[in-house]
Amino acid sequence: MTDPVQQAQQIHASLPVIDGHNDLPWALRVRAGSDIDKADPCVALDGYHTDVPRLAKGGVGALFWSVFVPAWDPTPFLTTIEQVDLVHRVTDRCDRLASADSATDVGTARSRGLTASLMGAEGGHSIENSLPALRTLRRLGVRYMTLTHADTLDWADSATDEPRHGGLTAFGEDVVREMNRIGMIIDISHVSADTMRHALAVTDRPLLASHSSAFSIAPHPRNVPDDVLELVRDNDGVVMVNFYPPFVDKAAAEQSLGRFAVARELMATLGDDRAVEAELERMLEADPYPDVTVSDVVDHIEHIAGIAGVGHVGIGSDYDGVDAMPLGLEDVSTYPAITVELLTRGWPEPDIRAVLGENALRVLAANDAG
Fold this sequence. Notes:
Elements: H1 4-12, E1 17-22, H2 24-32, H3 52-57, E2 60-66, H4 76-93, E3 97-99, H5 103-111, E4 115-122, H6 131-139, E5 142-146, H7 170-182, E6 185-187, H8 193-202, E7 208-209, H9 226-235, E8 238-241, H10 250-270, H11 273-286, H12 294-308, E9 313-315, H13 336-344, H14 349-366
Parallel strand pairs: 1-2, 2-4, 3-4, 4-5, 5-6, 7-8, 8-9
Helix pairs in contact: 1-13, 6-7, 8-9, 10-11, 12-13
């Protein structure tokens, strides 16, 4: 019998992983002032989850860098463009990264032994209620947009704010249709369950939940309910499992909701991202989340596969965007641990490759034409 660790290493040597969500660009902005001479992702980068050498070790063939901007930013469109520029600067600097804008580009990068560098905007506040701004982000290489982040918008309800619209407004429907037209993937992470359902009813292209897990296992509003998993299956979309303990473990989910309320209050009073991050780190040290393991993450993969099918689940880690990670999944070098767990549970290699990246690649290709 083949050793699962050796088999996982063989699988990951072909760079199968496509991660739907990595927040290194925002971490670089907050901690290093976007100075990539000061914090260079091309080499080992202490204090972060992500750098290029560890991407190689993890067998990452492509990832979506989040060009996140918080909803309280006074100029979210401008700041998003600055984050897009940061991703381009990192990609140009690192020989092992290749700029990508399509499924074909991803395949070309992987064939050259490189990691394809894609982008996703996290939160529709980035477009400032402007379809021309949306189109501009797409022209700059942004391949998906998460319809909301933590706050309800003028046109869409968030999962973690008071609902005002019952899903999308008429303008929100226009945003979804325009994203379909221009080849920008709709991302339903962070939105309310009603917004998920509404977006699925409007879109005519497969969509993503770029970094969300299963609500039935961890009942956090950021996760995807079973009825929506069925709709994602019918849409031929993909739910990409988030590694963050509060989205994986029920007790951690309950614990995190209180911390989220504190974070909102801190941002209102401190108005400084780094100060808020430091305070939340202090809270976590004083009261850590329960231990979460690779097995717990794979439980979500299996649950989503059981409801929606193996073709509709992927990986959206949230590395460098959260304050804790599961044991055994501490950074981007550790994706093979998921493969080992799936092999141990008897998953066949083609299904594992689908989860690791081929499902996400299918959704990317379905939105490439615009």
